[in-house]
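Subject: Sanity check before I submit

Could someone independently write out the structure tokens for this chain? I want to compare against mine line by line before I put it in a report. The sequence has 122 residues.
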Amino acid sequence: KLPNGVTYHTGTYQDRLGKLQEHLRQLSILFRKLRLVYDKCNENCAGLDPVPIEQLIPYVEEDGSKHDDRGAASQLRFASEERREIMEVNKKLKQKNQQLKQIMDQLRNLIWDINAMLAMRN
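---
Independent answer below. Compare away.
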């Protein structure tokens, strides 16, 4: 028996140890496969010229700041309208949920009453 009060079963331990060793073996195989893919990618990309990082990341300069302000204002207006619509839908959804809850409570009470009457009849 272990210090925390759990009974020690040799069969369970052996079973878990076997599963753990199998997972570790599978993991080792998968890492070998990954290494092969990595080496193959490096082999295929060896002849390519390296591309500077600046070309990989799109960069937009701030030349048209006035145009961007109008665009930002319209985006802000659109976002606020969308938020308002979402709030309205959430409000309606909460009302519908409340109505459904009331109906479920009424049905539960009705079923309870029917069961009580049936029990009294017997």
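---
OP: Matches mine. For the report I'm noting this point. The chain has a mean pLDDT of 85.
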